[in-house]
Every structure is written in structure tokens, then in C-alpha cells.
Amino acid sequence: EPDVTIVSGLKDMAVFEGDDVTFRCQVSHENARDVEWKLQDVALQNNEMNEISVEKGKIHTLTLRKVTEQDIGTIAFRVGPHTSTA
Fold it and tell me: Which residues form the Ig-like domain (predicted)?
């Protein structure tokens, strides 16, 4: 299985409270396994507040809905041993 690397990392974002924010990270291969999103070292799941998806097979996205002050912090995307943060 090829080593999946991060081609395009996360970008820092500034948003207003109550808005949605989307983070994108592009990886080198489609169907990457062992992928994880975290906010402040807490693993995020796909639910009504966090939308986790993959576009075109290689672009992994995380949308945080209606952010609050509690959402301030570091977002991390990890695929295998590679990590990108914003």
C-alpha cells in the first residue's frame, strides 16, 4: 500500500461566532485510510456539528458548524504518520 502524504496542508482561519468554517487538506492518494481530524487533541466524529467528508477522493474536508468560543484552538488533520495543523 503506498505511503499517503499531505500534498496541501491546512490553512489558519478566522471566523465570527455562529458562522461555519471549513478546513481542507489534500493527500497524495485516493481512499486514504487511517485519517483523523482533531480539535485541541480531541478526535472529531461526523455529526450535526462536524461534517467530515472527502471530495474528489483526495481532498479531506472538515466543516465546523456554528462555531463558538469553545471551538477556538488547533485543528489537526492526520493521515498515517503525517500531520497538518491550523
Answer: 2-86
